[in-house]
Structures are given as C-alpha cells and as structure tokens.
Specification:
mainly alpha, globular
Amino acid sequence: MLWLVHGRIAGIAGIARVALRGPDRDWRLAFIAGLVAAGMVARITVGPAVVAGLDTIPLLRLAIAGLLVGIGTSMANGCTSGHGICGLARLSRRSLVAVPVFMGTAMITLALFKVLA
C-alpha cells in the first residue's frame, strides 16, 4: 500500500532512520505509530501467544540481538522487510543476495545459541 500510495518501499529500518532526523517525517512517524498500535492491538486481542517465548529470554540478550540487527541493517543498506518482502517482489539483485545472507546468518546464530546455551 505504501508503494502504491507514496511510491515508497516499506523498509522499516530506512523509515525509522529518516523519521528520527530527516525529511518527510510526518508519514514516517505515522507509519511507525501504526506498527506499534497494531502490535498492541494484537497483544490485547490475541493475548500472550503473540510474544510467546520472549518473556523467557534475558533482556540483555534481546538488547544485544537488537543491536546486532541494527548494525546488520545498516551494513546491508536495508532490513528484512525492505529486502525480503519488497526487494524480492521487485526482483532486486541486491535483495536476492541480501535475503539468503540474512537467513543463513540467522540459522547459524540459532544453531550457535542452541549449542552454547
């Protein structure tokens, strides 16, 4: 819908980065507010199943994971939503490379955590 209405790719990392300090802040802030609101509505209507398992992960581990994801999205010049959903749909060569790297890294990280935990 964002592509059809605004001609913009719904890459959350890029939207968030520019919303903090950049042009066109209004629609970006509204988009992020909608994401947060949708999560809150899902939590209220569906219940704890929406975040199943997050309460068992230490906060420090979640913070480190978030930091690493942020660094990765910066290095890849986009996030999984931008590359994985929008980029693949547009047959972007950069996304066709980035998504397997994201997925492979996620699988390796999960395997390492299962071995080390």
